Amino acid sequence: MNKNVYSVSQVNTYIERMFTDDFMLGNLSLTGEVSNCKYNHTGHIYFTLKDDKAAISCVMFAGKRAKGLKFQMKDGDKIVVTGYVGVYKPYGTYQVYANEIELAGVGDLYKRFEALKAELEESGMFDSMYKKPLPTYAMKIGVVTAPTGAAVHDIIRVSKTRNPFVQIVLYPAQVQGEGAAASIISGINCLDAMGLDVIIVGRGGGSIEDLWAFNEEPVAKAIFHAQTPIISAVGHETDFTIADFVADKRAATPSQAAELANFVYTDFANQLDRYSDRINRAFDYKLGACEERINSLRQRLQLLRPENKIKANEERLKHLSIRLQNLMDAKLDRYSNRLIAISGRLDGLSPAKKLAAGFGYVTDADGKRVDSVSQLKQDDTILIRIKDGQITGKVFEAKPLQ
Question: Are 83 and 22 part of one and the same domain?
């Protein structure tokens, strides 16, 4: 029996022509709520458009964004997409290729999110005065998240890297779908009763529907009333949930939550070593000061004993006697030297010395010293004493030097 056999490419091409030839699918506008919105590094935007019964994949290429999109689209937005339905032949899938996207309104989930956020903020549950500080040196960390997936592995990896001795207690919770909120609340209450240092509550990223359990009011109240400090780590850096606002600390990712919860053990050990060195140095200094004080007091006590005091006074008297004797000897030496100097001067002024040197000593007849010609006149008698006798003479003339 002969039958037609077609390749996959041929079938996908045929289907593509069907979509292209269909007038309705070639130019249509459809409305729905945005979910799984991803801005690609190439500039393309990939997202899902859904209602309460169905969903369809959509893409807006970078070349269409400049004219076709006038706002920052995000999950929860209710929009109207104008474009066409086409087939992506490599995989045989169909999607909406958007030429224009308009904001039709905020999605129902996003409205519920904003309403609950406003209500809880008004009640004061987001106020910083209720935020408990994270412990500096946490050694027991609780984690409420799914037992599988990237979030729990990232938390364990980062925690063990920073502090290999940390104890991690995992509560395997359901974090998505029906019953997730109750499971998260049970995990918070269970770990809070264990007296841990800090609790991380979170999961990886996803759409607003995927993260919705963390936007439930009962979950927010469980976090708010917990005695243990709680870090919320839900989704990626751009994802925000009610749990983030009510928690004591918000982390952009599970990995960052582990960094916030754990201290670096090597830094802690090095700091302990520095403190130990400072304490030892301070102790040695204090001990040395105390020893010096004790020795000083011991010496003072020895001096205050009567026999030691007498001995000390005897030593002092002996020292003073020696000092007095030295002072007297020094003073006698000074006077002796002075006497010798004066004697030398007197000896130099002695008349006998002068006469011995060939000088004469002149007086009048009455023995009065003559030291000026004005004391004599012609025919006066004078006496001249030299070294070996006396000469009597008469003045023939007395006149001063010209």
Answer: yes
* Domain membership flag for residue 42: yes
Would you say 206 and 81 are in contact if contact means Cβ atoms under 8 Å apart?
Answer: no
Torsion of CA 265, 251, 148, 229, to 10 degrees: 70
Distance from the Cα of residue 204 to its chain's centroid: 32
Encode 304-333: b = buried (16+ Cβ within 10 Å), e = exposed. eeeeeeeeeeeeeeeeeeeeeeeeeeeeee
Strand partners, 95: 86
pTM of the model as a whole: 0.54
Binned average pLDDT, 10 residues per bin, the chain of 402 residues: 78 82 84 93 94 92 89 88 90 91 75 89 93 95 93 94 95 93 96 96 84 94 96 84 95 94 92 88 88 85 70 81 85 83 71 66 82 82 81 82 72
The last residue of a domain, from among 207, 235, 263: 263
Alpha carbons 359 and 250: distance in angstroms, whole number = 124
Of 203, 210, 208, the closest CA to residue 149 belongs to 203
Number of domains in the chain: 3
Which backbone phi and psi does 245 adopt, to 5 degrees?
Answer: -75, -30
Domain interval for residue 379: 353-394
3-state helix, strand, coil in the chain (%, to 5): 45, 25, 30
The residue with tokens 């006698």 is 332
| CA–CA gap between residue 332 and residue 224 (Å, rounded) | 101
Whole-angstrom distance, CA of residue 140 vs CA of residue 144: 13
Token output for 129: 């005065």
DSSP 76-124: TEEEEEEEEEEEETTTTEEEEEEEEEEEEEE-HHHHHHHHHHHHHHHHT
Side-by-side strand order, sheet with 389-394:
361-364, 381-386, 389-394
